[in-house]
Amino acid sequence: MKTSKYISYIVLSTLVLSLASCEPNAIEQNNIFMPSDTTEAGEANLHQWLDENNPEGWKIFTLDDFVDTFMTEEGNFLSDTCPYRTRSTNGNGIYLFSVDTLPTNGRGIYIRGRVTTDDYAGNFYKAMVIQQIVNGEQQNLRISVDIGSSGGLFQLGQEIIIRCNGFAVGRYANQPQLCVPAYNDNAYANKANEKVGWAPGRIQGSKFRLATKLIGTPDPSLLQYDEITLDELFDKIPRKPAMTKEDMKKVRHFDGRLVRLQKVHFSGEYYTQDGELVNCVYQHPDSSEYANVFAPTTQNVGYPQSRVLFNKSNNKDKAICCSCSEYAKFAYFFIPGAQEDSVKAVTNCKRWEGTVAGIVGWYADNAAYIPPKSDLKGSEWSVTPRGIPGIGIPDIQLKSNFPMPGIPIGTEWVPQEFDPVFYLDYYYPQKNDSGSDE
Q1: Cα separation of 110 and 60, whole Å?
Q2: 168-172 and 320-324 as β-strands: parallel, antiparallel, unpaired?
Q3: Closest to 362 measured CA to CA, from 176, 114, 118
Q4: Residues sharing a CB contact under 8 Å with residue 59, sequence separation 6 or more, in sequence order
Q5: Strand positions, DSSP E, 23-173
Q6: What is the mean predicted confidence (pLDDT) over 202-225?
Q7: What's the predicted TM-score (pTM) here?
Q8: Which residue, 328, 363, 320, is CA-closest to 177?
Q9: How confident is the model at residue 227 (pLDDT cuts 50, 70, 90)?
């Protein structure tokens, strides 16, 4: 019995030791993040890693150089037998939708940048933007990636480096992005004749994670904003770009810019499809796309809703849209100024002034409802906020500039959600038990 007892002890001890050896190493920063490039040692370590993983060589492109080198006007998926969607071009040589594939093998093709977006508030669903500072100026690029809650891994201010081999670069509604080719064959979609065909699609999440490394840890303080007025903004870019290669290059290089617009207020208006400005109304956002909230329903069509921003002089020629998805967490919150007396819709909007930050873009499409003119009337510059105070990044910071009942000058704007109970009581007064009005 002694012998078997000793054998049991030996087996048990061996098992315990083997189990202990299977325990994972303690989590350390070096196991998760590549060293930061802020030091010479960190940069040397990064270059060593690139050498080891790219036997045929590698190059890190600046974001603008990457787009200029690999993105052509027509793309390499243009085909008579398997075309882009019909709304890609109106025959003027400019393609608003395009796809150029990148070689899978050979020299490593890399880009790097710092994440400027956050998807918590829902305004950047399965989409990211990265920023690179070159000679003191921003360069930016959108990334279409099929990852839900991507902000949990790729946090605001996190620098990343991406091996782009095997992916594609293209334009969706004229906005350049890292992507993959995607073919829409849904013949039963709304306006299917305009949507069937090739367009940029989302990169598979697992493929993107394998191709992407984190550099250092997230540091939002290193993000660079253009602190700019609307007058200054439209001195930099054409407000109504012409459909020429020269203007489109300016637009595409400026797309994705991180800005903080100064001294702006909501006008309480939206643009019609013909480019006219019309006041928003106090209606239920479930039923009216013109309600005085950030993004009422589109009946699941899914295009971004826009509410208009003006400068202090209310110059309509310098207006810009504030863009929001109907699926954002703050979509049914009143635009600033609409909540004080919601039934008057937008009376007080001009009395709330301050800064609106976010990602700038010029979304242009050749959908049939847009007149086929060279300036694509109805397509406007927009800024897309990443959130509002209390929901995501507080990109909208306004204060009252005019005394209102119970609201002294200098009061900070506090978001307020549309109240369906108040709306029903206002338009359909409750009945008491006897059936008469209360």
Answers
A1: 5
A2: unpaired
A3: 176
A4: 107, 108, 109, 110
A5: 58-61, 98-101, 108-115, 127-134, 137-146, 159-163, 168-172
A6: 96
A7: 0.86
A8: 363
A9: very high
